[in-house]
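Any chance you could type out some protein's one-letter sequence along with its backbone structure tokens so I can compare the two?
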Amino acid sequence: MKKIFIYPPNSLILGDLVERFGHKPLMLNNVIGKKVRTPEIDSPPMNMTDEDPKKGLRYAAIEVPSGVRGRMALIGPLIEEADAAIIMDEAPMAFGCIGCARTNELTKYLIRRRGIPKLNLIYPKNEEEAKIVVQKIAKFLNELE
């Protein structure tokens, strides 16, 4: 079982596909879920600790907007943990979106810099394209074994 970073990192559809093929999806939802359920964090709904902004500095300089650093404090460790990545471009907002162009660019850059196997896909526009996308994902994940 490989750990697969998915992009957008909150895509439940990609997460489900990765799980169905026997791998562990590295998703933003899981990281945020842990923060929300951690009783030691005293500042809901922010659920930030003093260490979180420092983690973000590892991935983005101090001059970068704080929102990007905050997102990267969560996304960066997932990329470091990943054995491979699936990247879905041109997806609609409902598919899973961070909503921050700078974070998106930095995320893709860090994946490229890691040099891990990655599958780049374009969001399908019809049922036939969707079948092809699922086939490509299945082939990619099966070849990782």
Remarks:
- The first strand starts at residue 3 and ends at 7.
- The chain has one domain: 3-143.
- The helical segments are 12-20, 28-37, 51-57, 66-81, 101-114, 127-143.
